[in-house]
């Protein structure tokens, strides 16, 4: 059971843009890592774009399960995990991250923010904290 990506996005007019993201691509071949990370960023944005405000969904994309939560204020979170990772845990993580993000980052920064301008550093910590290690590893 693995988490690969945790993203916070803003669903504004006319499109969705990434505010902050964390990735764990350590299980992939070194030469595949950047393309896998690009795929996850693109997929997160696409899924958030296609989800309605105030909705939660889980979408299968290739061998991954993408869990998306779009709040009614336009803040969205996407977790990309393998098929075995518990859905309930993903949505609990998304709730926690989006609540904390909205408290720490001004709502005025969401429409124009980018990963370079938003100062929120907790995503990497959450990604490793919620990573489930297989017994014996």
Automatic annotation (TrEMBL):
Transmembrane segments: none annotated. It comes from the Eukaryota. It holds the Pfam family Longin. Signal peptide: none annotated. Gene3D superfamilies: Longin domain. Its main location: membrane. The keyword Endoplasmic reticulum does not apply. It is a lipid-anchor. One of its GO terms (biological process) is protein transport. Keywords: Lipoprotein, Membrane, Methylation, Palmitate, Prenylation, Protein transport, Transport. CDD domains: Longin. This is YKT6A protein.
């Amino acid at each position: 059971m693995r988490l690969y990506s945790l993203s916070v996005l803003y669903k504004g007019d006319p499109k969705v843009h990434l505010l902050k993201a964390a990735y764990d691509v350590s299980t992939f071949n070194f030469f595949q890592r950047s393309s896998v990370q690009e795929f996850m960023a693109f997929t997160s944005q696409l899924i958030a774009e296609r989800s309605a405000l105030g909705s939660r969904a889980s979408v299968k994309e290739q061998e991954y399960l993408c869990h998306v939560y779009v709040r009614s204020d336009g803040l969205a979170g996407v977790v990309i995990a393998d098929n075995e990772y518990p859905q309930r845990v993903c949505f609990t993580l998304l709730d926690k991250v989006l609540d904390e993000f909205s408290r720490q980052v001004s709502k005025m920064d969401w429409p124009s923010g980018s990963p370079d301008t938003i100062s929120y550093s907790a995503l990497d910590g959450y990604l490793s904290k919620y990573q489930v290690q297989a017994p014996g590893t």
